[in-house]
Amino acid sequence: MFPPLLMMLSTGTEPLPWIAPPPPYPVEIALAPPPVAIAAPPPTFLTRQVRAMIDTALKKKDTQAVETILALAKTTNPNATPELDAIGNAFRAGVAAEKAAAEQARREALLAASPLEYWKGSVELGGSRSTGNNDILGLYGAVNLERTGLDWRHKLNGRADFQRNNGVTTAERFLASYQPNYRLDPRLYAYGLAQYEHDPFLGFDNRYTLGAGMGYSVIAKPNIKLDLEGGPTLRLTDPVLEPSTTTVAGRASLDFAWKVSPTLQLKQVGAIYVEGGDSSATSTTSLDAALIGNLKARLSYNVQYEAGPPPGTKSVDTVSRATLVYSF
């Protein structure tokens, strides 16, 4: 007998269709993830003690201390110079960013402030009293105000000095001034001046001064400054014994301040007016010592010079004072 398939082929019977077997299921092969490269930390050549000193200075944000410690660390740890440079660069960048943010905040606050805001200044008071063989009363007071804006700086000053000896007035000085400054660049500025003086013992009842000129900040550091000014002025003087005069004078001045220490400051302020036959000059040297909070003690020495004083008077007056100053 033939197999059925052969019989179908031989007899012509139609064969059954071919059915292919199903494909095999895909096989998933779990592959291990590629290895992750972990960078090794850079080697450090700093000792724990040096690193602790640097971290302490960085936390305090003491720029001078940070720079000093980094310089010393480079000397004692030369192999750590790249690491120290990176620390220093990061610190300086952070300080610069903080200063820029603070300056931007200050500018925005000044733009939004009213003219009566952001004034600072000081009040100075002194006096003396003597009784017995001599009856002497001396009073002194001064007020200084200043407002620094984006481009403008305004200064207001007032001073009064009065003394009586056995019922006779021996000193009577008053001064008031206003000086606006407009900054042209970080050091150069233009200024205006309006000033009133009264001192009959130096030969004038009233003296009015109007002026303008240029100023330059020769030194502008956090602990020391020096400003020089110069320009023409117009002076109207009411002498005690003569008719009023109006003259043109040249003015030069200096303003020096040096913060010797956190509690000690030296100041020198002076101005000279040069005019035909009637020049004048004033100079004040002072030393401030911090007491409590905003209260300071001040020792000062003032020299006042007037050419051509009234008969019987000297051209130079000097005053030494000890006063108290409150700053705000």
Shape designation: elongated
**Helix-strand makeup class:** alpha+beta
* Element string (H = helix, E = strand): HHHHEEEEEEEEEEEE
- Assess the beta-strand content as a share of residues: over 45%
Physical arrangement of strands within the biggest beta sheet: 1-2-3-4-5-6-7-8-9-10-11-12
Annotated CATH topology of the largest domain? Porin
CATH superfamily of the largest domain: monomeric porin ompg
Total domain units: 2
Instruction: Calculate the terminal CA-CA distance, rounded to whole Å.
Output: 128 Å
The number of helical segments is: 4
Q: Any idea of the CATH class of the largest domain?
A: Mainly Beta
Poorly predicted runs are 5-10
> What portion of residues is helical?
10-25%
The whole-number mean of residue pLDDT values reads: 87
Main beta sheet: 12 strands, antiparallel, barrel
